[in-house]
Write a structure and sequence with these properties.
TolA/TonB C-terminal domain; alpha+beta; 137 residues; elongated; five-stranded antiparallel sheet; 5 strands; 24% helix; single chain
Length: 137
C-alpha cells in the first residue's frame, strides 16, 4: 500500500536532515588551498599538554595564503607555525610565528592568511597553534 504524499514528504525531509547532520565537516588539516600552481596547506596540530596549546577548532572560513614569488621561482618549500588567540567573534588575533622553515620566507604570507580566517563565535580563547605548509605543486 503506497504511503500518503504528505507522509512521504515528511519522511524525505527527515532523511535529508539526518543526512546533513552526518556529513563530516572538514578539519583544518583537510584544507588544501591552491595558489596558482603552487599550494599551501593548513594543518591544525593537537599538541601535547606540556606545550600549553589548545586543540585548534575547525575554521568556518579560511583564506588562501599567497605563495611568495621569489620562493616559487627558486623552488623553495616550507612551513610556518603560528600561535594565536580567538576572540568572541571568532576572529584570530595576537598572531605570532613560533616556528618556520626556512626562516622568514613565508611568515608574512602565513600571518596574512590567518588574519582572515574565522572560527565559531562566542568561544573566545587563546593558545591555539596552526601550521601552514607551503609546497610547490
Amino acid at each position: 500500500m503506497p504511503l500518503p504524499k504528505r507522509l512521504c514528504s515528511v519522511l524525505i525531509v527527515a532523511l535529508m536532515s539526518l543526512a546533513a547532520c552526518c556529513v563530516q565537516q572538514p578539519t583544518a588539516s583537510d584544507l588544501i588551498m591552491p595558489t596558482g600552481g603552487h599550494t599551501a596547506t593548513a594543518a591544525a596540530e593537537a599538541t601535547p599538554p606540556e606545550t600549553a596549546y589548545a586543540v585548534t577548532p575547525n575554521p568556518i572560513k579560511t583564506c588562501v595564503p599567497h605563495y611568495p614569488r621569489d620562493a616559487a621561482m627558486s623552488g623553495t618549500e616550507g612551513y610556518v607555525e603560528l600561535a594565536f588567540a580567538i576572540d568572541e567573534k571568532g576572529v584570530p588575533h595576537e598572531i605570532r610565528v613560533v616556528g618556520a622553515e626556512p626562516s622568514r620566507i613565508f611568515n608574512a604570507s602565513a600571518k596574512s592568511a590567518l588574519e582572515c580566517w574565522r572560527f565559531p563565535a562566542n568561544d573566545p580563547s587563546d593558545n591555539f597553534k596552526v601550521t601552514l605548509e607551503f609546497k610547490l605543486g
